[in-house]
Amino acid sequence: MRSLFPVTEATVVPGSEKGADEAREPRSDQDREQSSGPVRERSSAEDREWSLDELADRYAYPPGGDPWLRANMVSTLDGAAQHDGRSQPISSEADMRIFGTLRALADVVLVGAETVRLEGYRPARARDAFAARRAAAGQGPAPAIAIVSGSLDLDFTLPLFTEPLVPTLILTGAEAPAHRVRAAEDAGARVLVAGDTARVDPAAAVRALADLGLTRLLTEGGPQLLGQLVAADVLDELCLTVSPMLTAGDAQRIGGGPCVEVPKRLHLASLLEEDGFLFCRYRRS
Question: What is the pLDDT of residue 8?
Fold first, then answer.
């Protein structure tokens, strides 16, 4: 894995300290003839496997107690967020290492009900590699999973409800079916009301989680949920894996739903690369 941005001593090409201006100066014909030999590509950063601690430091949440919502998504070169309904076929080993790191840093993972059904979501597990870091941050052994669902049309016999290390949360609206709320609570889930109608209000969902002391927020989609978070302007950070694959077809993009009136501008915070996969991290300015 290589770090391509931000630029540090480790990412600068040897000899580039002479300055970009000098490199842009026009050359004479004689200079061109003398430099017309084969060009050797030089790596702009050391290519090696990063430790989990290094990844955790790179993806650390901002200091302070304010809620911070980041999304972690993957997309192919032609914009597909999944293949045959799942994201795993367009992922990689390095992508899964970052996926696990982001989970290990979070207080709670937000996920849409459809994604729970399609991806076969299971409870987050405790990982020894992050135990000391989580304890020092005052976190429990693993993040909670928070399902966003207006209808609560969920299978409460799934391990997400029968085997969680931390009780599963369900974010729903005030008009959610009462019998489904009771069924969720009977299954051991904690139901949080976030919205005055049957739909979940994204801003209210963030507040409801923050009221429980869950401020390091991570969402893994799916596309409909991410689109709602973008439209509500509550997304602070996007961790986007660009997969060097083409799928064609009609798969969803990473963000669905109605188009926002004005595109949201984010700024590049870091960029890693491994085996052609780009691991981009964008933040609010």
Answer: 72
